[in-house]
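Feature request, filed as a ticket because there's no other form

It would be nice if the structure record came with a short human-readable summary line next to the tokens. Right now we just get the raw output. Example of a typical job, pasted below so the devs can see what we mean:
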Amino acid sequence: MGPAGWHHWKPAVKLLEAPVAGQTGTENQTKCPRKVKRVASKCGRVNTTSTIPPPRLVGTKCTAEVTIEGNKVNCLLDTGSQVTTIPLAFFKSHLSHHCLKSLHDLLDVELQIEGANGEAVPYLGYVELYLLFPGEFLGKEIEVPTLVLVVPDVGSAPQILIGTNSLDVLYSHYVEKHDCCPQSFLPGYKVILKILEARQRQISAGALGWVRVPNNVPEVVSAGSTIVLDGQAHVSGAHGKTLVVVEAAFETSLPGGLLVVSSLSTLPVKHSCSMSILLKNETQHDITIPPRTVLAEIHAVQQVLGKEPSTNLTALEMKMMEFDFGDSPLPPEWKERITRLLNSMPEVFSQHDMDFGHTDKVKHRIKLSDDTPFKHRARPIHPQDVDAVKKHLQELLEFGIIRESESPFASPIVVVRKKNGSVRLCIDFRKLNSQTIKDAYALPNLEEVFSLLTGSKWFSVLDLKSGYYQVEMEEADTQKTAFVCPLGFWEFNRMPQGVTNAPSTFQRLMERCMGDLNRREALVFIDDLIIFSDTLEQHESRLLQVLNRLKEYGLKLSSEKCKFFQTSVKYLGHVVSQYGVETDPQKIEALKTWPVPRNLKELRSFLGFSGYYRRFVKDYSRITKPLNDLMAGYPPLRKSSNGKGKMNQYFHPKESFGHRWTLECQKAFDEIINKLTTAPVLGFANPQLPCILHTDASTTGLGAALYQEQDGQMRAIAFASRGLTKSEAEYPAHKLEFLALKWAVTAKLSDYLYGTDFTVITDSNPLTYILTSAKLDATSYRWLSALSTYNFKLQYRAGTQNQDADGLSRRPHGELRDDAVSRKERERIKQFTLHYLKDQETQDVVLPEAVKAICERHEVVWSHEDSTCHIPSVTLVESLAIHSDALPSGFQEEDDHGLPVIGQWTEEEMREKQRADPDLRVVIEHKESGDMPYPSLRQELPDLALWLREWKRLELRNGVLYRTRQECGQVTHQLVLPSELRATPLRSLHDDLGHLGTERTLDLVRARFYWPRMSACVEQKIRLCATEGPN
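Raw output as currently delivered:
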């Protein structure tokens, strides 16, 4: 026997007609005359006999002329066979261009097929084919995709046999799609009828029977009405007069909005009888139920013991989904009815986090310009994340999103923690995307899209549940999505996030799904789906049609993100309502809410920004004159040689304007804001034109400006600005620039940029390498994954030419915004204080391990005497670099000599170790003397050139050599390590912290220490670690 789900199939009986005198067997297959002759019996009576068997003995042959790959073939239709087969001779003569595949590609075990005689039926493999049934068979041409087994030739004229694996698809394509059976005079009527009856016999396990609409009698249920329908019941077996419950079938093809009201009934003795069904039409339009449609199932009633009433919700109430109507003016009775209607279609809505839809109507393909495989090494996973990653991979595997791989391709992953604590796998598809041929599938024209919405009064916006995971990958391209991690080698069965052409594939899918509804009753722009209408009744009808299309394609929505029956919605960066399409106020919010400048610094920032657009603003100089006059009385930016000896009194640059900010100044400020947020400065986005995005970041905020060249002039489309959070303010400069790019593209201006080609202008030269060769940390990989679905190129431009985005980033934002990271850090410091400083009499000195735990964010368990505490901590060696001014206030104590007790070495010991190093001794001696080393010392000091390059950054503090480092406006001091101590931080900051990657390890070392060629040392350390394996 084969695996579960496969059963015996019985080949059809092929019975040739009895030969007629004067005819050959071959002639008899094409001609079927009925010759009657009279034969005298022994009893003297004359019997009438025939050479053709009577119909009660032999029925008509069930065949159909089917087109296979352009070849019309007379095929045998066998509802008793579960497989479709073609003889080897036909395969060789007509299908040899197909690759004969092994069933091991589909099944892990051997598939065994038996004939009606119990003998095994051999097969050679399978092929994927399309069977085209002609219009005269069912009244309409239908193409059926199927898998066909190739079997050895048996007999002189082997025939193609079409089994239920193909006929079931034929049934689905016709009956379920057209909601009706074929006309009874058509040849395919009996075949469809047999399949229908077979399905009805297997509706669900445990059902005694089913109730359907009577034969050939369509039923119409009027809008909003409830009717009693006398259905035709069929019961399997003998049950006598049994009390049963009649309820909606578990799997039903009933139209949406038609409810079957459960009821109790007494089952008669007969197998077939009439049974009343209560039907309720929840919609505002008539519903027609096709004949023979299954309405309900019949189940036996089981007695249960009574139970005390409970205040908990019933199971039915707990399963009821809630839907977002927002501030919709929909009447309460309408909201209640629409909620019931939507709950009647649970298969369209995701029921849990991993409940994705699944469609194979459109598959994602990856065509490469260079087919050469590439393979990246697995990046390490932090030990704390291993269990979470393992669980996440198992979930993806169980729900069919991924599978194990043996691909020659391998992309690396980065594990990122979400805000809720769960993990997310970010696949680095940069290499794959660089080799992918771009899909030129055209996206809709936004002007046409918005013109179609004009005049509508009701809108619903639908959001698909993880839309990409609902799209199946083309089998031949799954290997290209392979990714490697320390927990295995996997590839995607569904379309992953971050691959090029994913938006085009999704647009193609949604347009095919909506079909004739698109642009007539609904609009699709990639994953943005909006339904529009003039009246409530019309909107309800269109909503049901869209939901039925999604159901047909196997797609599922996220109920909590959908918005139903709204009079105003945001769509593609605009506000759509009955009054038309308007500009989204958020795109000019950064200007409309620009704070009034309080001092010279803030005024210069505003004028620098507005001056970027002065060529668009008529009389710009006249309007801004009061603001320019306000800048008088401050010290010049550059010292002048004129006026030596004069003592001028200036306002301090940080001094508040106070009463000097006059009414004229306020009017000038307001007028400039108004000019910048109206035409001709601000334009309406044209989807046919390319976009240019300017981004910038400062130590206080982020800024972005979006442009298009229209009518020969650059027009601003949108502005964006925000302040930094407390944790973001600690980012280095290059990471802030990356944050500005990711925030502008994915968060603020996505509606304009998604699915289009655009150029990003930045004044950060390192940022231009992120899409190709940049080495990134985990957070940056998450940002890169979010950006990977956008098509853009990066261009560098000097900061002096990027005043627009620079001004937006420096716009006053008030105090730094609080965020989860900074709140968590404060809580850690609080817990540390409560635990270690609660008894000042016994705790004289703060332990270095605990102080360093506050400065770092790695969690371990630290035990002290009889108590155990979970605190963030790092290894002891890092305390080498901690200077007293780096410790939180109140966490440092001094000994008798005034030295902070912070680590394993005192400053005196460090001075001795540095001077014991031959190279450092020469550097320190010249620093103390104030003279730079001569080139003649190159033999004594091999790294002389490197030391000379850093000479201005080297300084002695209490006799200890440090290198000053300035980043993101903050100055830190890196301890210069002698050669004998350099291996210690490498081991501590790499091995002890879970074998971090090169870039992360280098960041940790660089933040604390310095020595020449430090990057090369870190890379060599990690290469050796990877070769020898972690200890």
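Something like this underneath would help us a lot:
Residues 589-638+649-810 form a domain with the Nucleotidyltransferase; domain 5 fold (CATH 3.30.420.10).
DSSP finds 29 helices and 42 strands in the chain.
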